[in-house]
């Protein structure tokens, strides 16, 4: 197959910051019309991402919605169809952390993380799948009926003390993604995930914004550097394109080797 992204429409959730922002800009630069979603309150940052995409010659529109709200997700997707007339790609990216010692973790902290990171991906994937099925094949546009990329984490695999809600949400994302991939492969809807390691964004600022923290972080990363948002954006673009057409149900670990059990290498 060929690359084939220009002219397609994508929704990127949580795209006002970090990995979603980088993915939205990279898709926009590839000619995709991008809906830059983020939560209500982040409108200014979302609009700024749209202006960056337009400066690269692309098209973008900001639509605020809390991905954990069924009603707001419904209007996000209705607004996308109203603005751009179709939908081909969902980047299920919005996510957050609410860490706590487990014995102190409140039900509110647990629910916030599960509601946004897992239920948010359910609601957005359901809306996207409904549209893909209703619209039908467009072989001149893409080999697939539609493409969904779920933002997971190395913590779908690596247990994470003091972040039990987050690790549980990403473990859930992994089997949600695989189950959707199995259910919809016959319809040629491709569903894959990206599992980033440590990427420099606001979500983990405390892990990289001073030298001691960065030194500690680097002990976990065999490749010897923190990840940068474009490292993930390039994987997003590839998974959205027909270059990955034979891939579904897969998780791409983009982590500088964090999942290679670096402690077993010894001092070398
Ligand atoms: P970030 O905090 O920079 O960006 C997350 C964005 O999601 C923010 O703009 C935030 O406003 C938005 N968001 C939060 N709740 C929302 C909601 N209810 N509805 C809509 N938008 C909402 O963090 P990031 O690092 O860019 O994280 C993006 C995704 O990548 C998350 O799912 C995160 O779990 C995952 N991830 C990040 C890393 C990393 O190292 N940065 C590693 C593994 C996984």
Topology:
Elements: E1 9-12, H1 18-29, E2 33-38, H2 43-55, E3 60-64, H3 70-84, E4 89-92, H4 107-135, E5 146-151, H5 164-184, E6 189-196, H6 211-218, H7 229-240, E7 251-254
Parallel strand pairs: 1-2, 1-4, 2-3, 4-5, 5-6, 6-7
Helix pairs in contact: 1-2, 1-7, 3-4, 4-5
How would you describe what is shown here?
With 268 residues, the chain is of the alpha/beta class. The protein has one domain (9-252): NAD(P)-binding Rossmann-like Domain (Rossmann fold, 3-Layer(aba) Sandwich), CATH 3.40.50.720. The chain has helices at 18-29, 43-55, 70-84, 107-135, 164-184, 211-218, 229-240; strands spanning 9-12, 33-38, 60-64, 89-92, 146-151, 189-196, 251-254. Strands 3-2-1-4-5-6-7 form a 7-stranded parallel sheet, sandwiched between helices. It is globular and about 55 Å long. 46% of the residues are buried. The model has no long low-confidence stretch (mean pLDDT 97). The structure holds nicotinamide-adenine-dinucleotide. Nicotinamide-adenine-dinucleotide binds at residues 13-14, 16-20, 38-39, 42, 66-68, 93-96, 116, 120, 151, 153, 196, 198-199, 201-204.
How would you sum up this structure in a few lines?
The protein is an alpha/beta fold. It has helices spanning 18-29, 43-55, 70-84, 107-135, 164-184, 211-218, 229-240; strands spanning 9-12, 33-38, 60-64, 89-92, 146-151, 189-196, 251-254.
**CATH homology superfamily name:** NAD(P)-binding Rossmann-like Domain
Shape: globular
Q: Return the string of H and E elements.
A: EHEHEHEHEHEHHE
- CATH topology-level name: Rossmann fold
Q: Give the terminus-to-terminus CA distance.
A: 42 Å
Mean pLDDT, to the nearest integer, reads 97
Arrangement of strands in the largest sheet: 3-2-1-4-5-6-7
Main beta sheet: strand number and arrangement?
7 strands, parallel
Bound molecules: nicotinamide-adenine-dinucleotide
The share of residues in helices is 40-55%
Which segments are poorly predicted (pLDDT under 50) over 5 or more consecutive residues? none
If you compute it from the alpha carbons, what radius of gyration comes out, rounded to the nearest whole angstrom?
Answer: 18 Å
The CATH class label is: Alpha Beta
Structural class category: alpha/beta
Q: What share of the residues does DSSP label as strand, in percent? A: 5-15%
Number of helices: 7
How many separate domains?
1
């Amino acid at each position: 197959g060929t690359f084939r992204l220009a002219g397609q429409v994508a929704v990127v959730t949580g795209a006002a910051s970090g990995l979603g922002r980088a993915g939205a800009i990279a898709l926009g630069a590839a000619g995709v019309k991008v809906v830059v979603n983020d939560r209500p309150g982040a409108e200014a940052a979302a609009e700024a991402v749209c202006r960056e995409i337009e400066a690269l010659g692309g098209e973008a529109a900001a639509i605020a919605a809390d991905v954990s709200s069924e009603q707001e997700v419904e209007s996000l997707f209705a607004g996308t169809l109203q603005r751009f007339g179709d939908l081909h790609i969902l980047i299920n990216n919005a996510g957050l952390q609410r860490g706590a010692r487990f014995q102190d973790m409140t039900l509110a902290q647990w629910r916030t993380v599960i509601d946004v990171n897992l239920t948010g991906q359910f609601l957005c994937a359901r809306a996207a799948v409904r549209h893909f099925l209703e619209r039908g094949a467009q072989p001149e546009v893409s080999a697939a009926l539609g493409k969904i990329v779920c933002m997971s984490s190395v913590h779908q695999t690596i247990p994470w003390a003091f972040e039990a809600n987050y690790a549980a949400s990403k473990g859930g994302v992994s089997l949600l993604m695989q189950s959707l991939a199995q259910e919809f492969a016959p319809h040629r809807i491709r569903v894959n995930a990206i599992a980033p390691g440590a990427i420099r964004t606001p979500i983990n600022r405390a892990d990289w914004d001073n030298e001691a923290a960065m030194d500690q972080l680097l002990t976990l990363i065999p490749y010897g550097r923190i990840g940068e948002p474009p490292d993930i954006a390039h994987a997003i673009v590839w998974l959205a394109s027909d270059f990955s057409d034979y891939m579904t149900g897969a998780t791409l670990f983009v982590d500088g080797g964090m999942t290679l059990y670096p402690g077993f290498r010894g001092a070398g």
